[in-house]
Design goal:
alpha/beta, Rossmann fold, 12 helices, 2 domains, about 350 residues, elongated, seven-stranded parallel β-sheet
Length: about 350
């Protein structure tokens, strides 16, 4: 049975979260009331997973994540409020080594979390599969591509990137390695709560050479621009003309239990885009993206999957590789270079 530690400064929230997890056959072996206590409790009990609140006295969740990852590396799920400040703090925790995030409906202390009990149990069980040892690798050993005046890129290239568990920092690192000279159109589908995708887009915008924003219905982008799929909406490539593409957003049924779905964006891109198209699948739980990679390959595009060694969870890339439609499997630190190799003109 999965063993968990629940960390929250609210006794009420600890009780509710513990009851939900134990009803889902997850054994809560200990609780902690703040980050300092969490570090000690995790070291003592060595659980399989930790649920971590963000705002706590003495030591907050961000600091606790950093100390736990240094002393007792353990998969950590952040439980954060639906606020701008909560989203930013959560991304800092992901930077320090947390694996995934789930939003608390109704704020820091709320009965609303009971409404997402199935999601909470499922997410905890997926986070358990994460390999904490990949955290250090996500911030080191990056092979930043060099671009010189002699490089020539194909006209109007599009890249579709899909990721889930453990993905935010990996997507950020990949995007930061893509030079503006490549003039890419980039579509990003990251499984993430709807209250966090806007902040995620802003982070990517500030840390890359591309103009990145959260997608809105009817958005158009050209070279040097990127869209992040809005949480709880599928992002469909609806039109492509003269190097500019348009997306539509919808709330059609979930695919693979998620919305947005990587498959939806990749399949529509494969159907609609006539110029160079590259599909990339990164770390994550599940099979979303496999059908999309297959569609891109069938349409004459090129495909890349992150390798097992550098994935927090080798689910999405593994399922894509099993289709036989992945051209290159490579570590996270070389994915940006791999993308550029698909859009360089042949000499």
């Amino acid at each position: 049975m999965t063993r968990a530690v629940v960390v929250d400064d609210s006794h009420f929230m600890r009780t509710v979260i513990t009851d939900i997890l134990e009803s889902g056959d997850i054994d809560v072996v200990a609780e902690a009331t703040d980050g300092r206590e969490a570090v000690d409790v995790v070291a003592e009990h060595e659980p399989d997973v930790v649920t971590m609140d963000v705002e706590m006295p003495r030591m907050n969740g961000i600091e606790a994540v950093e100390e736990i990852m240094e002393s007792t590396p353990t998969p950590i799920l952040m439980l954060s409020a639906h606020t701008e400040d909560g989203a930013e703090a959560t991304f800092e925790a992901l930077d320090r080594g947390a694996v995934d995030v789930l939003a608390k409906p109704g704020g820091e202390v709320s009965t609303g979390i009971s409404a997402i009990k199935d999601d909470l149990v499922e997410t905890v069980k997926s986070v358990v599969r994460a390999d904490p040892s990949t955290v250090d690798e996500s911030t080191t050993d990056h092979d930043t591509p060099d671009v010189d005046d002699a490089d020539e890129f194909v006209e109007n290239p599009t890249v579709v990137i899909g990721a889930s568990t453990g993905g935010p920092s990996v997507v950020e690192n990949v995007l930061s390695g893509l030079p503006a000279e490549a003039n890419l159109r980039i579509l990003i589908v990251q499984h993430m709560p709807d209250s966090f995708t806007s902040r995620f887009a802003k982070r990517l915008d500030s840390r890359s050479e591309y103009d990145v924003r959260e997608a809105s219905d009817g958005d158009r982008i050209g070279g040097g621009e990127a869209l992040v799929a809005k949480g709880d909406y599928h992002m469909v490539v609806s039109n492509y003309s003269s190097g500019r593409l348009r997306v539509k957003l919808n709330q059609d049924s979930e695919r693979h239990g998620v919305r947005p779905a990587i498959d939806t964006t990749m399949e529509s891109a494969a159907e609609t885009i006539s110029d160079s198209l590259t599909g990339v699948v990164l770390t994550g739980m599940g099979a979303d993206g496999a059908a999309g990679i297959e569609a891109i390959k069938d349409a004459g595009g090129q495909t890349i999957a992150q390798d097992e060694e550098t994935c927090s969870v080798f689910g999405i890339p593994a399922r894509a590789i099993e289709t036989g439609c992945v051209d290159e499997v490579m570590p996270e630190g070389r994915v940006a270079r791999g993308i550029l190799s698909t859009v360089r003109k042949s000499t």
